[in-house]
Amino acid sequence: MIARNTGFSNLTAGYLFPEVARRRREYAAAHPAASIISLGIGNTTEPLSPHIAKAMSDYALGLATPEGYSGYGDEQGNTALRERIAEVFYNGIADASEIFVSDGAKCDIARIQTLFGRDVSVAVQDPAYPVYVDGSVVVGAAGAAKSDGSGYEGITYLPCTPENNFFPDLSKVGKNTLLYICSPNNPTGATATRGQLKTLVDFANANGCIIIYDAAYFAFIRDESLPKSIFEIEGARTCAIEVNSFSKPAGFTGVRLGWSVVPNELKFADGSSVNRDWNRVMTTLFNGASNIAQAGGLAALDEQGLKDMKDSVDYYLANGKLIKETLDGSNFKAAGVEAYFTGNGPYVWAKFPGRKSWEVFDLILDKCNVVTTPGSGFGPSGESFIRFSSFGHRKDVEEACARLSKLVL
Ligand SMILES: *Cc1c(COP(=O)(O)O)cnc(C)c1O
C-alpha cells in the first residue's frame, strides 16, 4: 500500500472551523429548539451587489453565443482585470505584469507553499489564520506537533498580544525565513502602521527574508494613515509578495476570486526571479480563475462596484461596533474581559482572563446559543481569547448582542 503523506500525519486534530461546526451540530442535535446565531467563521452573509451580479450573469449568458464565448483566458488572468487592479489598488507601486488573478487568497497561499517547498524556514504571527501553519505542515516545511502544545517543529511562532500591540518581535526570526504577516489581522483585528511595516520590510531586506503579506481585509481600513498594501512601504518590492481577495469586500467567498502581487525585483538566493516561478506555478498547477468571476471582478472595480463594495464593508464594520459595545458591557467588564476592535477589520478579539478559549466557546454556545471562534485554534498565543466575527445579518448580530449582554460570566 502507499504510505500516507507524512505532512498529513503530522497535522494535529481537526482543522479549526470543522471542529467549531462539529460542536455546533452536536449542540443543535441535543437542543433542537435552540435558535443558534453564528458570529464564528469569517464568511460573508450579505447579498452580492446587483451591479456585480448582473455583470457575471451577462457574461455567463454571453458564453452561450459565438461572440461571447471564451475558453482558457490570458496567462496571469484577464488582462483588463489585471490592469484595473493595478490602477485602482497599486497606482504606481505595482503593474499588471506583477499581478496574478486567482480563485482566492487561501488557494494562493497554498500554491505559494508549493513555490517555496519543504526546505524553507517559516515564521508566523501567533495567533494566525490557520492555512499558513497547516499548509506548511502539509508540504513538509514544518515537522510534527510538539507535545507541550506550543505548535509545530520547524515553525517560529511570533506572539502578537496586547503586551506588544499585536506586532511581532522580529528578533526571534532567523535569516532567510518565509514570514507570514496578515494585516488587518485575522483573528486579532490589529492593523499594522506604516512605521511597523517599515520595520518589517527593513528587517526582511537585511536578513534575506520574504514576507507573504495577506491583505485580504485591506478594504476594511478606514484610518487613512494606515497602509492598505505592503507596497506602499519603500523597499517592499525586494522582499514581499502580497495576496489579496475579492472575498471579503465584494462578498465573493463563494464566487471565488483573488489576486497576488509578485514584484519583478523579488529574487531567490540564486538571483532567479520569483515572479517567473510564480508564473510557472500559476500556469502549470492552476489554469486561471473562472472567467465569469473575473467579469464580476471587473464590475466590482468600476465606479458603481467600488461604491457597492464600500457600502458592504461599512455594513460589517457597523456590526463590529455593536459587538465591541456589547463586550464592553458591565457583565464582561466584571469578568475582566478586554475586547479589541480597531474599526479597520471585521473581527473583535476578546481576552477572557483565566479561562480557556474552548471553555468560553462552549459557555457562550450553551448560554447564548451564539457560535464564536476559540482563539486557541489560531495558535498558542490565542489561548484565553475568543474571536467574534462581524459577518452576519444586522438583526442576527443585534439578537446575539442582546443575548451576550445578559450572559453571566
Ligand atoms: C477570508 C480570508 C482570506 C480569503 O481567502 P479566499 O480564498 O480569497 O476566500 C485570506 N486570508 C485571510 C486572513 C482571511 O481571513
UniProtKB/TrEMBL annotation:
What is the role of this chain?
Answer: Involved in the synthesis of meso-diaminopimelate (m-DAP or DL-DAP), required for both lysine and peptidoglycan biosynthesis. Catalyzes the direct conversion of tetrahydrodipicolinate to LL-diaminopimelate.
Keywords of the record, alphabetical order, are: Aminotransferase, Pyridoxal phosphate, Transferase
**Gene from which the chain derives:** dapL
Organism encoding this protein: Treponema saccharophilum DSM 2985
Q: What class of enzyme is it?
A: transferase
Q: Where N6-(pyridoxal phosphate)lysine occurs, residue numbers? A: 248
Gene Ontology BP terms: lysine biosynthetic process via diaminopimelate, diaminopimelate-aminotransferase pathway
Q: Please give the Gene Ontology molecular function terms for this protein.
A: L,L-diaminopimelate aminotransferase activity; pyridoxal phosphate binding
Family the entry assigns: Belongs to the class-I pyridoxal-phosphate-dependent aminotransferase family. LL-diaminopimelate aminotransferase subfamily.
Reaction(s) catalysed by this chain's protein: (2S,6S)-2,6-diaminopimelate + 2-oxoglutarate = (S)-2,3,4,5-tetrahydrodipicolinate + L-glutamate + H2O + H(+)
Q: What EC numbers are recorded for this enzyme?
A: 2.6.1.83
Any idea which positions bind substrate? 15, 42, 106, 129, 186, 287, 387
> Which cofactors go with this protein?
pyridoxal 5'-phosphate
Protein name as annotated: LL-diaminopimelate aminotransferase
Q: Which residues form the Aminotransferase class I/classII large domain?
A: 36-404
Q: In which pathway does it act?
A: Amino-acid biosynthesis; L-lysine biosynthesis via DAP pathway; LL-2,6-diaminopimelate from (S)-tetrahydrodipicolinate (aminotransferase route): step 1/1
Positions that bind pyridoxal 5'-phosphate: 72, 105-106, 129, 186, 217, 245-247, 256, 287
Pfam families listed in its UniProt record = Aminotran_1_2 (PF00155)
Q: How does it assemble?
A: Homodimer.
Superkingdom of origin organism:
Bacteria
Checking SUPFAM superfamilies in the record gives:
PLP-dependent transferases (SSF53383)
Q: Which Gene3D superfamilies match?
A: Aspartate Aminotransferase, domain 1, Type I PLP-dependent aspartate aminotransferase-like (Major domain)
The record's listing under InterPro entries reads: Aminotransferase_I/II_large, DapL/ALD1, PyrdxlP-dep_Trfase, PyrdxlP-dep_Trfase_major, PyrdxlP-dep_Trfase_small
